[in-house]
Structure formats: structure tokens, C-alpha cells
């Protein structure tokens, strides 16, 4: 018999060979019909796979992230099966699940595949799904796997096999389809009810521009048609909110091929938006004792060699800048922390000086492949709301907790209420990608988890997501469309102080190493603003709106009074403009609504006589007539952060 421990700690016994699906059936047939996969001793398995002698078992359904991921990975295999049936001879790359759905990279050879072919493939997938073919796992030797793909003539799978070890290779079969895959998969294709192939794109094999360009087909599937319909509705809403579209319509930012890919330029209204966000955080930071610093946009190569960033990212970043002096090299600044280490080192420090909190809105440069660039969310030049706290080891938890409070204040002020704190730790097995002392890593990881627990954060642990120099707490925020984004980040770092030989004189007159905390509540202004645009649909909080009012004279006779009103408001730090175009008032109101201006102040004969404005609020309509001073008071109350 085998022992199975369920999440409620109850223990059940089953005969050898029993699977997670058998366990589900023993509980209820209804549950079994919904089981997609299983978590067995911390690993996600096929629900049909025989369980080990002792198992901690969690049954996974559509409501579990790993259940969805398994479902979408299996759907990628169904897509590949349909493609092989429709286009004999195609060669397959990889087909993983992604956050929403899946994709498969395919080499179609001489066939020109386009989005027009997607409905035909969808229909084939639906036909195959109805066959309810089982996903069957097969362990296979490397030599047999190589032989299979040599005979098939699929160089992409052979390339993948070259990096795998004998004894760790599995095939999965369903219907007439076989794929090299670690799994896991859902029990059978019948679980896949609604299919939608979304788009076709190009993707270099293994993400390397030197390799062949494959066709990447994106798709998504659901257990119910209703869920697919709801998803497609959300997508339509997302298109309306796309920051690239709204950024252009609202005159916030632009790109130029001559300036260069991934290098955004901020227009006047976008610049005001940036400056308001910056001022908001600077004010909060000042209250918490942060000290402003400014560092250059370039740094000597040796700076990044010392920090370890050059060895880690140098080859994939912008290439060194050479000066007329032989052997002298500089790099565009890819991050601010090495500069801040040198500022710390510029004078002797005492334990009484700590913590020292340095803050900089520093612009950095990183070379992203052109295929990865996307509006403001993936760029080559961006500004980080960066700060580095240098503190004693006994101050780490307190400082970390204060940063959490700051991040949560930022989220609350900007309307991000749905978030999860991701504790990003080292890979459990591969420690080669991390630098520094094992004991310090363990202390840092323990500190982060303890503070997150003390703060009552809703946390998840992700192994392998730590920075190369230390663990971190990443805030995963869900926006108005239900999408998850990584925004604020806090990182504990015992390594850079060692590499830069940073010191302070302790109370016993010995020299000690400070601990460094990296933090960025926004992450980067560019990415944060992109997400904020889409989260709000361009309807920013009142205090943040670049243009907070527009004065609309009903005819040119009242243009002078309109300008007088605008001046009075601007004197009270309320920003806006006068629309004195020779247009009807209805047209002016519609245009202001499109530009998402919060307040429209209409002025005519009555308003001029009483020194008032007729107030109209976007989305609410007419609020009545107010004296200008009364409107100022009303506005300031409404605009409080």
C-alpha cells in the first residue's frame, strides 16, 4: 500500500500504482472530472502518473495556477498535433505555457503561414480535442530520442536533446502526435473545450538573432466557452487602454527611429506626469530621511567589473565607449548601485551615521533585443526611482519594513489594491549564478521572509528568481484588467559592500561591513507609467493629471475672462489651459472628454459678471456654478493624495 497525505493533513492508503486521479475519484467523481494535474511532494505531476510510496498530494484544478499552466501546456501540444496533421513536414521548436495561454514556435519550411490560416488550425484543434486522446508519458533513453528525431529530420528537437542528460528524458504522446517534453499534462484532450488562436509572430530560435526566424503561434484555451468570451471581452478593453495608443492620443510620449529603438521621448504633458510622480515620491522619501544624490550617465568599465555586473551582463549590454586615451573604457550606466557605493566610500563612516539612505531618479541604459521592445514596458533607456540604504546588520529588518510601508503607500495612492508579495529566493539546486557567502545569503533570505510575515503580506515564494547578489521581495500587482505586473522591488545585498570594501567604524572601534538594501517602489518610471495608463485607461488620479482643467469660453467675447480664470487657478498650483478655438461649446466639451481632462470650466456672460465658473466633471457631468475661489477649495480637497 502507499500513503497519501492530503492538504488537510488527513492520510489515506491506496494500492501500489494508484494515481492522483484515482485519489480524486475516491473522494468524489465531481472532483475527478475537474482535476487537471497534481502537486506531488512539491512537484507538479500528471494526474494519471503512479504515485510514490509516500506522497504529500494536492489536486490541481483550473482554479490553481499550476493547473492552468498544465492545461495550457497541453493545449500547445494539441496545437502542434493539428499543425502536423495540416502541414506535414513542419518542424517544431518549443511550446510552453505562458501567463495567458501558450505558444508554439514552428518552422513551416517553404509554406507561408499567416493569421489567415488560424481559423483552419482552430477547427482542427477542436476536432482533435473531441477525440479525448490521453496524454501518455514515456521515459526514453537519449540515444533512442536522438534516433527518433534524426529519422524525423527535426534539428530543433535534436538541439534541445544535446543539452539533456540520459535518464532525464521523456516523450509525451497523444493521438498520432509525439513530443519531447518534461510534462506534466492533463489527463486527455477532452478537457480542452474552447480554442482561440490569437496571433502570429516571428521568433528567433532560442532567442538568438543569429539563428533562424521561426513562426510563433499564440493561443489560449478554456474549459468553458463563456470563459473564452469573457477573456476576449477583456482583451478588447485592453486594446482601448493600450498605453501605446493612449500615449499617442494624450500626447504623453513618442519614439523616433532616428533617435533609436527603445528610446522614449517625453512630450510636455508626459513630462508633467513624470514630474508629478517624481515629486510625489521625493516628498515621501524626504519625510523618511532619504538624501538626494545625482550620478553620471556613464561609468568606468572597472566600476562594473568590481560590482560584478560586467561579468554578468556585459556581453548583452551596450558596448564600451572608448576614449582617445588608449585602454580607457566607459559604459553607459546600466544601474545606479555601483555609483552609490562609491558615494558611500567617499568619506569615513561611523555606526552612528547609519542608516544612510541615498535616493536618485537615475536614468540607465540596457540593450534589449529589438524583438523584445514593447512601448514603455520594455525599453533601452529608463529612469529608476532608485535608492540604496546602507545600514548595520541589526538595522536590516527595521529598514526593510519601512520600505515595505513606502511601497504600500505608493500603491494605495495610485489605486493599486490587488497585489501579492513575491519572495524571490535562490534556485534550490543551481547556486552557480549567485555570488557571495552562503551564510550571508541564508541570513538575508530569512530576514526577508520574517519581515514579510510580520507585515502580514500575502506572499508567495519563487525559487530561482533572486538577483545574482541577493534575495528580493517583488510586488506583483494585478491591474484593472486582471493582468499581473511586477512593480515595486526591495532587495537585501551583503555582496556589493564586500566587493566595494565598504566599511564603517563600529562602537567597539572595529571596522565592519554595512548591509545594502536596494529599493524601487515604481521600478522604472517608464514601465510604471505604462501600467498606470492601462490600469486607469488614461483617467489619472486628479492630483496626477497633466492637465487638470480646461476653461471653455462660450464665445470669443469671454476669452479674456477665461484667461483670467486660468491664471487664478495656476497661481494656486492647478494646471490647465484655455480652449479659445472658434468652435461650438459642445465640440469643445467632447474634445476635452477625449483628452480626459478632469474638469471643464465653462464661462459666459453670467459667469464673468459673478466671477464664477460653470463646472463640469469628466464622467459625472454638470456640478453647477461655483465662484473661482470656491472651485479652488473644492479642487484641493478632491486632489488630496
Structural description of this entry:
- The protein has 641 residues and is of the alpha+beta class.
- 34% of the residues lie in helices and 27% in strands.
- The protein has 20 helices and 33 strands.
- A hairpin with a 6-residue loop joins β18 (321-322) and β19.
- The longest helix has 22 residues, at 65-86.
- It is globular.
- The mean pLDDT is 93.
Produce the secondary structure layout.
Blueprint: E1 2-5, E2 11-14, H1 20-27, H2 29-32, E3 37-40, E4 43-46, E5 54-60, H3 65-86, E6 91-92, E7 97-98, E8 101-107, H4 118-129, E9 136-139, H5 142-152, H6 155-161, E10 170-174, E11 177-180, E12 194-204, E13 213-222, H7 225-241, H8 243-249, E14 253-254, E15 265-266, H9 268-287, E16 291-292, E17 298-300, H10 301-307, H11 309-313, E18 321-322, E19 329-332, H12 337-344, E20 356-365, E21 381-391, H13 396-413, E22 418-425, H14 438-454, E23 459-463, E24 472-478, E25 484-493, H15 496-499, E26 504-505, E27 511-512, E28 515-520, H16 525-536, E29 549-553, H17 559-571, E30 576-578, H18 585-594, E31 599-603, H19 605-610, E32 612-617, E33 621-627, H20 628-638
Parallel strand pairs: 1-5, 16-20, 22-23, 29-30, 29-31
Antiparallel strand pairs: 1-2, 3-4, 3-5, 6-8, 7-8, 8-13, 9-10, 10-11, 12-13, 14-15, 17-19, 18-19, 20-21, 21-28, 22-24, 24-25, 25-28, 26-27, 31-32, 32-33
